[in-house]
Amino acid sequence: MFLSFLILSGILITGCKTVSGQTSKEYEEDVDFYPAYGYLEDDEWVIPLKLYIYEDRHYLESIVFTLFRVFRSFTPEEEEIFRERMGAFTADSESREIVQFVFDNDPENEIFTIRDDDGNPVRSDLHGIIKGEIRLPVGRAEALLEHQNTVNGWLTFTVVSEDHKGMGKVRLIEPEGVSIISDIDDTIKISEMPAGSRIAVRNAFYKPYAAAPEMVELFDQWRDKPVHYVSGTPRRFYRFLSEFLFSEEVNYPEGTFHLRDVHKHLFSLTTWGDLEDIITAENVTYNHKLSEMSKIVGHFPGREFILVGDSGQYDPEIFREIDATFPGQVKEIIIRDITNDRELNLERLEGMNVIPARTVEKGVSQFEAAE
Predict the structure, then answer these.
(1) Pair (233, 349) in one structural domain
(2) How many domains does the structure of the chain reveal?
(3) How far is CA 47 from CA 167, 227, 246, 295, in A?
(4) Same domain, 108 and 206
(5) Is residue 145 located within the same domain as residue 187?
(6) Best CA proximity match to 126, nearest among 100, 97, 155, 146
(7) Which one of 42, 108, 229, 367 is most buried, counting C-beta atoms within 10 A?
């Protein structure tokens, strides 16, 4: 019944918007570029890029909150957090659009467009996503790095296409060296996934984020190294995660983001799923992490990688598979043990550097004594 009420409300409100004639663009649409990396191929930097085009729909956000409040009471702090984070799922994804951008401080003011393997401009799909690449000749990239007076190979760019706004950044990574690939949930941010879906959903949608103890200190030693954050967290949490992880209070090293696509919409009969499914789809997360990590390691055959994860889901198994697939490239595996596998299942963590952590118990949250 709740689902039917949600869908009906969405149809009615969306229909009212159409009837009132508000079909033309009244605001610039936001573009979220997920921080990316570039790798060398012959005399060019190849830069895989992914972005999301959307427009906030605050009227739907208010409806969703009102409906959820029927089934759950919120503190004032939880209300504010829930409204903000749920807004990422009520946003209107913009399809069939092309986004153009220029690198900051580029004296040539060259306009770039994400392209497919055949060199054609890519338009956003039905979910507002554009995936493709751009290419920069080595000399051109060196000039841009000089003009931006950048450090560690980072380049920034700004969207210039009509009716769009946004910024992005990419790190050009040399073929040799040491890189870090890290999970997010329960590795560097407390999510309590093993506690169960109800607690995990609450921490994702209602509660302030909390950094995992001692992990920032671990990452401090890698400030100059490339860091790739690969996570099963839905991509629509990107803004909230980046603001938290790279804030002055938390201060993890900036890195590239590789989050999971969740093509679910609150008012779609075919793609609606409850919050539990959005957060805890373990098999989908496994495949996503394995695929994204394989791409990263495969693009840098001359680099070594330190893999950082936790014992809560499948990080040890994924890391072993990466090690077997790319022999000689995995320098170290570090696991934050939140399930006490160091005592209960030692074989699972054999050969890994284990960081003892508070054990997450089913149905129990460290933020509230019991659920």
Answers:
(1) yes
(2) 2
(3) 16, 16, 23, 12
(4) no
(5) no
(6) 97
(7) 229
> Does 265 lie in the same domain as 129?
no
144: CATH: 2.60.40
Beta bridge partners of 159: 101
Residue 11 lies in a domain: no
Using alpha carbons, select from 207, 242, 199, 239 the residue that is nearest to residue 80.
Answer: 207
Hey, is 50 helix, strand or coil? strand
CB distance 104 to 144 below 8 Å: no
Domain end residue (candidates: 115, 147, 172)? 172
Residue 147: CB atoms within 10 Å: 15
Run of H or E residues at 164: strand 164-165
Alpha carbons 366 and 333: distance in angstroms, whole number: 26
- Per residue in 142-200, pLDDT (tens digit) is 999 999 999 899 999 999 999 999 999 999 999 999 999 999 999 999 999 999 988 99
Q: What are the b/e assignments for 323-332, b being 16+ CB within 10 Å?
A: beebeebbee
Nearest to 189 by CA among 312, 76, 80: 312
Partners of residue 319 on adjacent β-strands: none
Judged by average pLDDT, the poorest of 42-56, 130-144, 273-287 is: 273-287
- Domain ranges, residue 188: 177-356
Cα distances (angstroms) measured from residue 44 to each of 39, 41, 114, 141, 305: 8, 5, 16, 9, 23
* 15 three-class SS: helix
Q: Is the pLDDT of residue 7 over 60?
A: no
CA angle 305, 300, 222 (to 5 degrees): 35
CB 147 within 8 A of CB 106: yes
